[in-house]
Amino acid sequence: MGKADLCEGRRCTPYYDTALAVKAGADVVVLDGMQGGTAATQDVFIENVGMPTLACIRPAVQALQDLGMHRKVQLIISGGIRSGADVAKALALGADAVAIGTAALVAIGDNDPKWEEEYQKLGTTAGAYDDWHEGKDPAGITTQDPELAARLDPVAAGRRLANYLKVMTLEAQTIARACGRNKLTNLEPEDLCALTMEAAAMAQVPLAGTSWYPGKRAF
Description:
The chain is mainly alpha-helical. The protein has helices at about 15-25, 45-50, 55-65, 85-90, 100-105, 115-120, 145-150, 155-180, 195-205; strands at about 30, 75-80, 95-100. It is about 40% helix and about 5% strand. The protein has a 3-stranded parallel β-sheet, with helices on one face. The radius of gyration is 20 Å and the shape is globular.
């Protein structure tokens, strides 16, 4: 079938799902792109279902704008958010906030190389372990096993997570200032350019050095 994925939403776009959620009275819409998840499902689903996070944002924003609800109904983006740059780009494309999951787990100590031997016993390696649903996490984070859970120092883990969130925020703020914005929430699509045709098409921002992106109508 080639490089094409099946989509979970109707007509392969978050536009209609977002519109339906708003019409149903939702105060918040959370979009979770295919880069998210913990791999706690079948391989056929992981490899063949979903849309890239980048491709989800603009249709969802358009739905909110068409309904006059942009910035009234919050749009939260997740799935592959790792750095302040990811945060800044999501907000520039029209999101109100971002959410993280796996990144937070790693920040508090999951996949720590010091447990490499334990990860290998599970048939994996530090940096690649994603079977959190099995409850055998050597780092003692996603488990109900008292012996494993005792390995986690909650105070040290909390500090690491706080440091991660602080650095992510500072990175995003730095990017906003570089774009001439005094607040993160002032970032706009005009602050972005795409470096590949695929990114230009999905984000609907101009290819670098041009005022054009694939699918843009000529006026």
